[in-house]
Each structure stands twice: as structure tokens, then as C-alpha cells.
Amino acid sequence: KSRSIREASAILANKPIILLMMGGRERIMAAAEKLMGLRPYQEVAIAPLLAIAEVQPPTLYYHFKDKEGLFVEWAAQAFSGIGEKFRLRAGTSLTEGLTAFSTIFLLEVPFDIDQVLRDIPGLVRPESQEAVYNAYFQALYEPLCAILIEAMERNELPPEPIGPVADVFLAGLHQLRKKGAPGYEVTTAKWYAQRFVNGFGAA
């Protein structure tokens, strides 16, 4: 607990001025961005989070009901943000589309996706678990499946059930994130996309 308080104090010392202009809900969400998705959900304590946000517990309970409600709201916002990045890609070749997707996944996601997925079973309410799973699905699977479907329509991939192909591609990206040192290179994303295309294209 003392470590959490020290970390909160360090974050407070570097707090941007804009935080002072936010309402209670926005302050709590901004604080959640600094703490959630980077460590196990159970290790994120409410006290340091509220200290960063500079609000009292009733503000949290009013806007989010409890810590779990805040986690669900944070996850929805976090996944929505990366989902928008995926959807902004242009209609390009399969290799270019998958390279762009991989680059975002490896380089531009500011939280630990695997940790969030590991946290889901620990949520008490079934509707909370479902909400986070849905946010993950909409952010990653939907844009990835769109890339794959367009490639099949252009005959860049043989006709295959989309779900298993997307699962294989995402599983490889998750492994790269686990194995990669801090700071991936864009060449890793391009290499992975090309290897995937060569493998499935030859099927």
C-alpha cells in the first residue's frame, strides 16, 4: 500500500494543469488511465487513484458505483480509442492492412491488453465481464475481420472461416508483445504481417 501511495505522489507531482480544469468524473477517468491496465486489477487500490484525481470516495461511487464499474468504463474507453486507430486505416493490400494493424497493436496501445484479458474473470458481475469482452472484440476483431474479408474479396486470401484466421493472427501478436523488449520496431510488424500472408496465401 505504501508503494501505491508513493507512486500516486509521484504522479501528482507531474500532474498537467488541464487536470485541474476537469470535473470529478473526468479526473477519475484520467487517473484510471495511469493505473489500470498496467498491473493486475486487484492490485489497483482506490486510495491512490482518488489521490491522483483529487476527489473524495462519494464522487467515485456517484459516477461509477464502485471500482469494478470504473474498470469497465475505463476498459470501454481504452479499447474504443485503439479501435478508432484500427478503423482509420485505408483500404490497402492485405500486407499493408495487416502491417498497419500490427504496428498499432505493438507500438501504440498504451496498456497491457493481455493483463486486461486476465483481469476479466476476476470481475464479480457477469455483465461487467461481458462488457469488457465486447469492448475488446469490437476494438480488435471487427477491424481485423474487415481487413481479412476485403482480402478474400480481392483473392489475396483463399476462402476461409474468418474467425479462426483472425484468432491465429491475434494470437501471434499477443506472443510478440509478451516476448518483445521495450520498444518494438516497425519492421517487426511488417515482418509478422508478411509471414502471416505468405503462410495463409500458400494454403
Could you characterize what this model shows?
The protein is mainly α and about 200 residues long. The mean pLDDT is about 85. The chain has ten helices and no strands. The chain is elongated and about 55 Å long. Helix 2 crosses helix 5 and helix 6 packs antiparallel against helix 8. Helices cover about 70% and strands about 0% of the residues.
Percent of residues in β-strands: under 5%
Oligomerization: single chain
SSE sequence, one letter per element: HHHHHHHHHH
Rounded to an integer in angstroms, the radius of gyration calculated over CA atoms is: 19 Å
Largest sheet report = none
Secondary structure class reads mainly alpha
Count, helices:
10
Measured between the Cα atoms of the first and last residue, the distance is: 53 Å
Number of strands: 0
Contiguous runs where pLDDT drops below 50 for at least 5 residues: none
Q: What fraction, in percent, of the residue positions are helical?
A: over 70%
Can you give the mean pLDDT? 86
Quick synopsis:
By secondary structure, this protein is an all-alpha fold.
Question: What order do the helices and strands come in, and which of them pair?
Answer:
Blueprint: H1 2-13, H2 24-35, H3 46-53, H4 57-64, H5 67-87, H6 94-108, H7 113-119, H8 126-153, H9 162-179, H10 186-201
Helix pairs in contact: 1-3, 2-3, 2-5, 4-5, 5-8, 6-8, 6-10, 8-9
